[in-house]
Amino acid sequence: MLDKGLLKAILWKLAAIYALLVIAGLLLEQLSLLLLIGTVALFIVNIHQFYKLLQWIWQVPQKHHVGGQSMWDHLYYGVENIQRSNRRRRQQLIHSLGQFRQGADALPDGVVVYNQYNNIVWCNSQARLLLGLKWPEDQGQRLDNLIRYPQFSQYLSEHDFEQVLIIPSPRNELIILEHRIIEYGRNQFLLVSRDITRLQQLEDMRREFVANVSHELKTPLTVLQGYLELMSDNDEVDASWQMATNAMKQQTSRMKGMVEQLLALSKIESSNHALIKKVVLMSAQINMLREDALALIGTRDLSIEFNITPNLDVYGDEAQIFSACTNLVTNAIRYCPDGSHIKVVWQHCTEGAMFSVTDDGPGIAPVHLHRLTERFYRIEQSRSSSSGGSGLGLSIVKHVLLHHQSTLNIDSTLGKGSCFSFVINNERISAS
Predict the structure, then answer these.
(1) Is residue 100 in some structural domain?
(2) Which of 15, 302, 338, 419 could form a disulfide with 358 if both were Cys (CB 3.0 to 4.6 A apart)?
(3) pLDDT tens by residue, 220-252
(4) pLDDT for 104-119, tens place per residue?
(5) Residue 111 in domain
């Protein structure tokens, strides 16, 4: 620790030296000469001590300084103290870094740290296993040179890290990896690669199972519905049987509609529409939607208003977009009570083109909003059954919008109404 009286001691020492020089100069009648000689001697001695200090500092490792009574000893002690503190900090950092790397190596996911130039800074053992990286040979190598997939290079360059990228492993194409990039610090990025092969297989099996079962159910339901229609048209059938036949016919029709929606959902899930270039004439699609909506309303006391911007067309899958719009409008008609007003809008917005369906119906409680796009999720079982809903409409909308780089936005207040909307981004708007 620095002695508070050090400065005072140094000043007293200098004062004593110059006092002796003054006394000797007066006795020898050479005051100026002795003061000059003494000052030069002090300067040379301190320069020599400074040079020795520099030599000692640049020694690797430094020898322990054995001090005397020199004022320079305090500098040696201070430097030694700083060096000891730095060594302790370095050891702590090395220990912490070792613990971090051990923890990162224990992760089941591959982790790669890279900089703004896509140069690899570090990777864990799982990244070496999943991505085929070598450590430390690949340190400083460009990540996109080692993972040679065009989708991956595009993913890195676009910096849209809200989305995940699913591609095969460069080491084994049978392994499916989900990549997610996290930006942290200053120009530092973290690539997390997760093996989802098993999940992908299960999802494919589920999708194939649903498609096969739905397809197999469609034919017997059609036959059953045909015979029920024959029975209901027969005037000789007893009134009680007529009522039962009509009920079976209604439920069969509902089940057939559910099967068709399951088939549609399975088809949408298994398709890949990332690069859709076909122009969808939205004005014509919404005019068709208007006719279907008016037919569905029939004699009910519902009013519906369409506000369409003409010549606002987009690139996409015509059947899928029409299905998404139809489901949103149909839901509003089914679940709004008589006396309600529904407004359908297709117009420009800042992000692109927006389609929205707004109603002043009963609204939806906040607890249900995040689950509305789940398959077969219903707010009220009785209301959905009576309205003919299958619980698949919004799930279809969700997957359609996913294929068109969009999401379903739901804004609802209980007792005041709901607004379902989505935005097709500017890149998908047709210039014609």
Answers:
(1) no
(2) 419
(3) 777 777 767 777 766 666 666 777 777 777 777
(4) 777 888 889 899 899 9
(5) yes
